[in-house]
Request: fold
Amino acid sequence: MASLSTRRLCFWLPALLVLLLAATSPAQPPVNLTTEQLIFRLRSAIEGLQTMRCTMRAQERMQGKIIQARNLVKVNFRPLKVYIKKQDGIEVLWVTGQNDGQAWVHLGRFPYLTLSLNPQGTLMRRDQHHVALQAGFGPIAELLRPAGAGGESAFFRSLRYVGDTLLQGRPAHILRSDFPQFRYVSYTAGKNETPGTVAQRFGCGDYRIMERNNLAAEEKIAEGRVLQVPNAYGRRTTVCVDPNTFLPVLVHVVDEQGLYERFEFVDVLANQPIPAAEFTRTFSGYKF
Reply:
């Protein structure tokens, strides 16, 4: 006959197994989540960020070639402070109100110099679609803004919550835009236009404007010049969203040529204090 302790163990074992499974199972996504609710929560989560650490894996098409990168990113959003360490050893530090608005950039290799560069300029835009000041989810926040030219508005309306998936071994909501009318359209530049101001009108990002029209990032466009501009961000744009934090874990964009860009955010730590020292040139381990 089983002992009293054995019988007690047999009684409690199923309950313990249920508790263990509940603790180790991934969080279930909310039921009946609408597209509008998902966009609102995604936008609110991005706007509510105070600090963020992550590793960002990037694939970006530059001049017909896919450039891959793996960057360590730290951001304090108010006031904005950005630190980026790239896989090739380059380090970038930008802090509001310091260095006359320039970024400190350590080359990470001989001649081991630290330069002061315009974060919006051509030199800092080499091999990347977006500027360092957009580190984190800046490009995604812009994509989620419904205001703009007609093409952007149509693109925004095409966003749909299409279900859930597993990503990095965890559940994620899928927000997707299928926009088959994606194309380049003619646009006549007005006064004091730059690639950035045109990109804001069309919600398309400025890199393809620069690439298609042979423009520099900081270039002032001659008034009346006719440009070829994308009418939206992509033909298919997919954003995978963490169901617990409602922050993006993946952004995948396809245009008429195929893959345009893909960003995967790994080991995201949001709204956990980052010591001010980590945004200084003298922080231990930095090479500035």
User: Anything to note?
Assistant: The first helix runs from residue 4 to 24. Residues 35-183+231-279 form a domain with the outer membrane lipoprotein receptor (LolB), chain A fold (CATH 2.50.20.20).
